[in-house]
Amino acid sequence: MSDRIFGAVGVLLAIGFAFAALAIEESFLSDAVGPKAFPLIIAAILGLSSAVIALKPDAAPEWPSLPRLAEILAAVVVMVLYAQFLPVVGFVIATAFAATYLTWRLGSGLIASVVTGVGTSLGIYVIFHLVLGLSLARGPLGF
Amino acid sequence: MDTLASLADGFAIALTWQNLALALLGCFLGTIMGALPGLGPSNGVAILIPLAFTLGLGATPSLILLTSVYYGAMYGGRISSILLNIPGDEPAMMTCLDGHPMAQKGMAGQALSLSGIASFVGAFFATWGLIFLAPQLVKIALLFGPAEYFALFALAFMTLGGVSSTNQAKSAFAAALGLGLAMIGVDTQTGVPRFTFGEVHLYDGLDFLVAIVGLFALSEVFIFLEHRHGNASGDAAKVKVGRLTPPMSMLKETTPTMARSTVLGFIAGVLPGAGASLGSFISYSMEKRLVDQNGKTFGKGDPRGVAAPEAGNNAAAGGALVPMLALGVPGSGTTAVLLAVLLSLNITPGPLLFTQNPDVVWGLIAALFIANFMLLAMNIPMVGLFTRVLMVPPRILMPIVAMVSFVGIYGISGSSFDLLVMIGFGVMGWVLRKLDVPLVPIILGTLLGNSMENNLRRAITIDNGDWFTLIDSPLSLVLWAIAIIGFVLPLIVGRKVKAQMHQNRDEEGAISD
Question: What is the ipTM metric for this complex?
């Protein structure tokens, strides 16, 4: 069943891609092929292979249970927040929070997670910023 | 003789303190990454690329660092195979079969050192193979025009699924998806924006490094979260390592095995779409058929069963560099990632690389030799250190992987937008791995898409818009024929090999070498 849905999504994607390719505005200066032809070939392959996947599906994979799925979703949310807050609060603070969260969700105790998270953040800061001179996001506190 | 002179020049480049230090660092990190289940050569190299750039390393030093990681990971994978019966990376899968039984018999130390020696033999002779084969391939490639290049790219994509492919339709889907992603951005020939949906960030196209790190490294973090594999996968400390040198008789017994496996592995590596996993697989099965017809000793701790896959996968790792350097078309995941390094440094791999940037090529090859000796030295006496690394639990390791990925990508562009794109690729990688869609063709598509299109358009423009120019020359006809055979053949014979190869790998093993 998973493959049938996947194939159907793939076909839709291919159709969307083809329409987007047709919508490309050609400039008055163009070569013999133009900017549309290759994307259209790709859309055709994408559509064909998706159709084959939908028609001849493999055995369905084992999808995670709902709580596990929520787990991944939560991790994604945390990472998105991390990306947004990184320039605002600075590298060390943002990373400490994100690393603590991930460590905690992978099964460490609360205190151990905080220690690991702060350690990871400071460790990366020391190695990459202080030793190797990489520029990391600067927060209001200067780190 | 020309070759040897170039090699000598290469050594002159590689033997600076900085390059030696980078090779040593790369070997060390590579061995650790190979040994840790969950980190393999492709994602190991992937998370280090952005760092190599932001540190401002030049082309040769970056490549030396990253290929040392690649070779190191090939060595390191065997450690957890032998001690824990869990392959540290996919190519080390076959080493479990005889390596772990040897460890159970109390011969862990001998298995580790023997496999270290086998790895060295495989990698050492494969590097020589690279030296002699790559220039020959370059001579052929110099005859290629745009039409032939287009056929060559098509060949690479069509054979990438290879004999071990689970589902050719999914390989084709992955390739088309990657090519489609490469189309995003301003068209190089006419200057019109394509698939950007008005988003200014997308005008430059997607940075393929962002895609690689997301697909390879972040998706691994999601896999671990899904299963909550938080604890170390086993207790490596409990296994008694024992004597660390194999007896002479064992070495003597395994010498012919290593020789045969090196040759086989190298060939498997050079062929498109094969890579190190296949190299170790065919070496092992061939050796089993040859010396143990009745199935008496293989699988029960036969030293030859340890030497064969290790020599095979390391030889294949060297072989896989041949098409990447000589043609600019990688045949495996990690070489695709290495290609990304070259492209980001504005170096176009392919036949011209050997004439335009001989310092890069020969410096790299010399560094491979040096790295190999370092790895041998590291992997036998210091193997105890690496076994201790195995005890770092993923609940500590995986957040570090995630954070280092973020640091690297942010370091390149300093933009949160790229981080969001990377997270998107991470989620996509996770879903696709669940659905058993290979990730390597996606990467290859994003890397090669633009140059594939340019060659197509150049070929047709030269011939005044005649599409038949694509199949006009005998050379391109041959390439198309190989491509079609390579795509159709696995549909017929692939099932059997695939079934055997996938017997003992984990479910989401879509990350290959």
Answer: 0.93
Last residue of one domain, picked from the residues A55, A81, A100: A55
Which residues of B are less than 8 Å from A45 in CB distance?
A: 172, 175-176
Q: CB distance A35–B402 less than 8 Å?
A: no
Contact state of A83 with B166 under an 8 Å Cβ cutoff: no
- Which of B202, B226, B409 to mutate: most A Cβ within 10 Å? B226
Residue A125: C-alpha distances to residues A71, A96, B124, B128 (Å): 28, 10, 38, 41
Owning domain of residue A88: 66-131
Residues 19-58 of chain A with CB under 8 A from chain B are 20-21, 24-27, 29-35, 37-39, 42-43, 45-46, 48-50, 52-53, 56, 58
Q: Which of A50, A103, A134 sits opposite B173 (nearest CB)?
A: A50
Number of domains composing chain A: 2
Task: Give pLDDT < 70 ranges for chain B.
Answer: 1, 161-166, 229-241, 273-274, 494-513
Domain endpoint, select from A31, A55, A79: A55
Give chain B positions within 8 Å (CB) of A58: 166-167, 436
A76 and A50 assigned to the same domain: no
| CA distances to B20, B196, B205, B341, B378 from B181, in Å | 38, 11, 8, 18, 41
Chain A neighbors of B189, CB-CB under 8 A? 30-31, 35
Check if the beta carbon of residue B403 is closer than 8 Å to that of residue A115.
no
Closest chain B residue by Cα to residue A87: B416
**Within this chain, do residues A70 and A125 fall inside the same structural domain, yes or no?**
yes
Q: Classify residue A25: in a domain, yes or no.
A: yes
Residues 6+ away with beta carbon under 8 Å from B226: A64, A68, A71, A72, B430
Query: B45-69: per-residue pLDDT in tens?
Result: 888 888 788 777 888 899 899 999 9
What are the residue ranges of helices labelled H in B345-473? Answer: 351-356, 358-379, 383-389, 394-413, 416-434, 440-462
Is A121 among the domain residues?
yes
Is there a domain that residue A94 lies in? yes
Nearest CA in chain A to B454: A38
Query: B120: buried, middle or exposed (CB in 10 Å: 19+, 13-18, 0-12)?
Result: buried
Tell me if chain B has a CB within 8 Å of the CB of A81. no
Q: Which of A6, A14, A56 sits opposite B435 (nearest CB)?
A: A6
A87 and A126 share one domain = yes
Is residue A22 located within the same domain as residue A77?
no
Q: Are residues A127 and A73 in the same domain?
A: yes
Specify whether A38 is located in the same domain as A12: yes
Residue A60 maps to a domain: no
- For the stretch B72-127, pLDDT in tens is 988 888 888 888 888 877 778 888 888 888 888 888 888 888 999 999 999 999 99
Only one residue has tokens 């900085």, namely: B18
